[in-house]
Amino acid sequence: MNKDSDLIIVGGGVIGMSCAYELAKRGVKVTVIDKGEPGFGCSYGNAGWLTPCFSMPLPMPGMLLKSIKWMTDPESPLYIQPRPSWLLVSWLTRFLFNMNRKQMLRSVTALTEISKYSLDAYSRLSAETGHDVHFKKTGLLMAANTLDGWNYARQEMNLVSEHGVPGRSLGAEELKAFEPAITGPVKGGVFFPEEANAEPLEIVRALAAGAKKFGATIISGHELIDCDARDGKIHSIRTTKGVLKADQYVFATGSWSTGVGRMLGINIPLLGGKGYAFITKPLSPNPLRPLMLVEKKVAVTPRDGTLRLAGTMEIVNNDYSITPRRINSIVKGAREFLNVPQDFQYSELWRGLRPCSPDGVPLIGYTKKYSNLFIATGHQMLGLQSAMGSARLTADLILKATPIFDPKPFDANRF
Ligand SMILES: Cc1cc2nc3c(=O)[nH]c(=O)nc-3n(C[C@H](O)[C@H](O)[C@H](O)COP(=O)(O)OP(=O)(O)OC[C@H]3O[C@@H](n4cnc5c(N)ncnc54)[C@H](O)[C@@H]3O)c2cc1C
After folding, report:
1. Confidence category of residue 1, pLDDT binned at 50, 70, 90
2. Does some domain include residue 415?
3. Would you tell me which of 222, 279, 334, 339 could form a disulfide with 33, CB atoms 3.0–4.6 Å apart?
């Protein structure tokens, strides 16, 4: 069988598509397949934040007691539903093991680097591809209504300032003057002036347009179902629309990766971090810039003519069900800070599963088992903001160039 391209990427989310763009730009003949429409997985309705200031892994020191408490409170911003599952037990064991300062600092360094690179690359994406991603460099404001929350925001500011991400602390009065949309009682906040936001689906579309300009082929409705894997190599892949063949394969299948890995005997222990987002009318007064409501972990993003409220993280395994109690907690949380009307209405409610690795760092690299299979997944709550950096590292490794970032923290075989 003749090969269809040099390299096939499975998964057309922001990770797969940014890899396609970067590799095609560098001369590789790429085909991207997606089981649905590219960009309609977790990359569809996220908050759109391009914020290196949030380069924290999911497991953070001091979260042990909190995580036990979360298991008993279905309204908590991070909820881990206790259930008998070997994947959950092994994921949680590794998650708890990674809640230490040394590991956290290592992860923050790696995640800030790929996020800062990405922010810079996104600022040029509309011009490079001719597709507007609505990139806005408005900064990001964290607002806290407890002293603990304000201290947490300042700790985060100090941590990322060591990696060249500037921020400044604001007292309650200063915060309210700076952001008149904050109508509830607050203790203080932190403003990060360099952060940006964009429309997530438009980013995937821009990347697709850019990749196509450099010769990439993008095919929707092709689901990977099996592989011809022998002698340490993938020879071809079987999809719902037939067999495809290439020299190399990149799997960027987001929260589906555990099942895809299982098909080949590769351990990719990801769970889904279910989150929701609403599109609603602008508030009165409407925020001037994106806000993180610290204690509630609600992300508020003003858009052209609408507003997006996003939040919650529920650790699940491929469960897309909607829990009304958890979506109500987002609205309730936002109302503590902002003038959210009592008869809150939305024009769209979306949920997505963030692909969460147990240590909060993506898996980017070749698998040990198959010499021509590369994995790029596990980007938890930072997939959009770190996609371009992840793609750069992917392309460097595939093209045997000196990698721009240290690939060790991203080792795809570490679990
Ligand atoms: C509420 C919410 C808010 C968020 N806000 C932000 C934010 O502001 N900033 C940020 O950086 N991140 C944010 N995130 C996280 C971000 O959305 C994810 O990290 C990112 O979208 C992951 O991208 P991905 O390409 O890995 O996965 P996906 O976008 O899910 O893409 C994976 C693709 O693989 C395809 N696929 C799967 N299996 C197969 C198969 N067998 N065959 C073919 N195709 C297959 C799927 O159809 C899908 O299109 C948020 C997430 C949520 C839920």
Report:
1. low
2. no
3. 222
